[in-house]
């Protein structure tokens, strides 16, 4: 019986994460020439103790995959001009 309940719960959790992911928007008003580099963001985060696996662009944000200073797996969106954290997608533990 528990198995039958787990599958729908996982589907709902995935759908919620995707819906949240689709609403993230950082900087449509900032011209790309004003953006700071992805490598600069990666270096800044690594200096704070992060282990960055990947940085990419998504909806005018920098999307970072890796592990934060506490060792927790993260997917976080940063503003490309200010490096301000815009959103974080919850990760499974």
In short:
With 93 residues, the chain is α+β, with helices and mostly antiparallel strands. The protein contains two helices and four strands, in the order ααββββ. The chain has helices at residues 2-22, 38-47; strands at residues 51-58, 61-67, 73-78, 85-89.
Word description of this protein:
The protein is 33% helix and 28% strand. The chain has two helices and four strands. A four-stranded antiparallel sheet has the order 1-2-3-4. Residues 4-19 have low confidence and may be disordered.
What structural category arises from helix and sheet content?
alpha+beta
The profile of the biggest β sheet is: 4 strands, antiparallel
Uncertain runs are 4-19
Distance between the termini: 23 Å
User: Into which percentage range does the β-strand content fall?
Assistant: 25-35%
Quaternary assembly: single chain
| Helical segment count | 2
Count all strands and give the number: 4
Secondary-structure map:
Layout: H1 2-22, H2 38-47, E1 51-58, E2 61-67, E3 73-78, E4 85-89
Antiparallel strand pairs: 1-2, 2-3, 3-4
Structural key phrases:
alpha+beta, 33% helix
